[in-house]
Design goal:
By secondary structure, the chain is α/β, with parallel strands linked by helices. The chain has two domains: 44 residues; 173 residues, Rossmann fold. The chain is 29% helix and 24% strand. It contains seven helices and eleven strands. The strands form two sheets. It has a seven-stranded mixed beta sheet, sandwiched between helices. It has a four-stranded mixed beta sheet with strand order 2-1-3-4. Helix 4 links the parallel strand 5 and strand 6. The termini are far apart.
Length: 233
């Protein structure tokens, strides 16, 4: 799949993006979906949305959460006695919101994203933001990487079952478009079962509060108003 990329030759990360993705450098485009690289940020544009998908960990709700990460009570309860410095494998990175919270709480993080486009957006942001440098970003299916990686905790937050603000829903719909473009389909139950059968100190699964667990064999649950964490040890 080739996607149009609007950028100038002088952009710092242009060669990285061109090496990472099958993209065509253009000045303008009529494509329904395309990428733009400007001021060290890679964005995904869709004709279905006024604003593009862009990842900036320093702004908006995520920036606010990072400044108050010590107050992330539900996540901290789910982690329990997992010591800072332990390695957390975020099996579905998305826009890395929880990966960044884990990092700010003192954990080492491996964030795996199945989409090449989204993974490249994250990687460009990482190169441009020093605060992201400690997170290891990998692109591929997390369940296929388990034997290659060392980790203590697996964190699994399945996509498209989340609820939240209009901005979050917009971002999820844009990510869904990206996955459709890349012909990526994920069976969350199958992914969970592969993660569940792997070796870990703790498996933390984020679920909408009223949804069924992927397995009833959880050891305990941490419940909030709209979400809960099913924890397997």
């Amino acid at each position: 799949m080739t996607i149009d990329l609007i950028s100038s030759e002088g952009e710092e990360f242009l060669s990285f993006v061109q090496q990472s993705l099958d993209c065509r450098l253009v000045q303008t485009t009529n494509a329904a979906s395309y990428l733009s690289l400007k001021e060290n940020a890679l964005s995904f544009h869709s004709q279905n949305f006024k604003n593009p998908l862009i990842f900036d960990p320093t702004k908006g709700q995520l920036g606010y959460r990072l400044k108050r990460s010590e107050q992330e009570g539900l996540l901290k309860k789910a982690l329990g006695n997992v010591k800072p410095g332990s390695v957390i494998l975020d099996a579905t990175a998305g826009l890395m919101k929880d990966s960044l919270i884990f990092d700010s709480l003192g954990y080492r993080v491996i964030a795996i994203e199945q989409s090449k486009i989204l993974g490249t957006i994250l990687s460009v942001s990482q190169k441009a933001n020093a605060e992201l440098s400690k997170i290891e970003i990998r692109i591929g299916q997390s369940e296929n990487m388990l034997s290659q990686l060392h980790f203590d905790v697996i964190y699994f937050d399945p996509m498209f079952e989340k609820v939240g603000t209009a901005l979050r829903e917009r971002n999820l719909r844009l990510i869904k478009e990206i996955l459709a473009m890349e012909n990526i389909h994920q069976d969350n139950q199958v992914t969970f079962e592969k993660l569940y059968r792997s070796s870990y100190q703790k498996l933390i699964v984020k679920r909408p509060i009223k949804s069924k667990p992927f397995s009833e064999n959880f050891n305990y649950q941490i419940k909030g108003r709209s979400v809960r964490y099913d924890v397997y040890v």
